[in-house]
TrEMBL record:
Cellular-component GO terms for this entry: cytoplasm
Gene name, Swiss-Prot/TrEMBL: ndk
Cofactor or coenzyme needed: Mg(2+)
Source lineage: Bacteria, Bacillati, Bacillota, Bacilli, Bacillales
Stretches assigned to the Nucleoside diphosphate kinase-like domain: 1-138
Active site residues per record: H115 (pros-phosphohistidine intermediate)
Species of the source: Halalkalibacter krulwichiae
Name of the protein in question: Nucleoside diphosphate kinase
GO MF, one annotated term: metal ion binding
CDD domains, A to Z: NDPk_I
Subunit structure: Homotetramer.
Phosphothreonine found at: T91
Alphabetical keyword list: ATP-binding, Cytoplasm, Kinase, Magnesium, Metal-binding, Nucleotide metabolism, Nucleotide-binding, Phosphoprotein, Transferase
Residues bound to ATP: K9, F57, R85, T91, R102, N112
Length: 143
């Protein structure tokens, strides 16, 4: 089963959108495997956003994501990587369709509420940056 890394950014946390966003993925039918409120270190932010290192906004990106707590999550389900991105909407909230998370709650590209992995390779890499194996829950055990 596919897994993805989703992270509610400091703007989303401060605007009390955690419950609303988690609810959307729960109602869609995906399974929450791990979640934690955490403050990202500069080193972790630079590793996570390594592919954007040469972009002019890299410094801004790192300082924003480390500016306050984020809500880091791992979600599981069929095609969860691409479906979560569809539910998030375009990177720039001004271009994101109404009904999507960024379309409904965002205005600026830097403060676009949520991050989601863009491929299976990124998902694996990002999950391993933010979570260790023991934090990834299994629903297989009998209740
Ligand atoms: P995210 O999905 O977290 O991945 C990289 C982030 O870079 C992206 O969301 C945006 O928030 C951010 N970003 C993209 N373009 C710009 C820009 N021009 N200025 C500031 N941040 C940007």
């Amino acid at each position: 089963m596919e897994r993805t890394y989703l992270m509610i950014k400091p703007d989303g946390v401060q605007r009390n959108l955690i419950g609303e966003i988690v609810s959307r993925f729960e109602k869609k039918g995906f399974t929450l495997v791990a979640a934690k409120l955490m403050t990202v270190s500069k080193e972790t932010a630079e590793t996570h956003y390594g592919e954007h290192k040469e972009r002019p906004f890299f410094g801004e990106l790192v300082s924003f994501i480390t500016s306050g707590p984020v809500f880091a999550m791992v979600w599981e389900g069929e095609s969860v990587i691409s479906t979560a991105r569809t539910m998030m909407g375009a990177t720039n909230p001004q271009e994101a369709a109404p009904g999507t998370i960024r379309g409904d709650y965002g205005v600026q590209v830097a403060m676009n509420v949520i991050h989601g992995s863009d491929s299976p390779e990124s998902a694996e890499r990002e999950i391993n940056i933010f979570f260790n194996e023991e934090e990834l829950n299994s629903y297989d055990k009998e209740v």
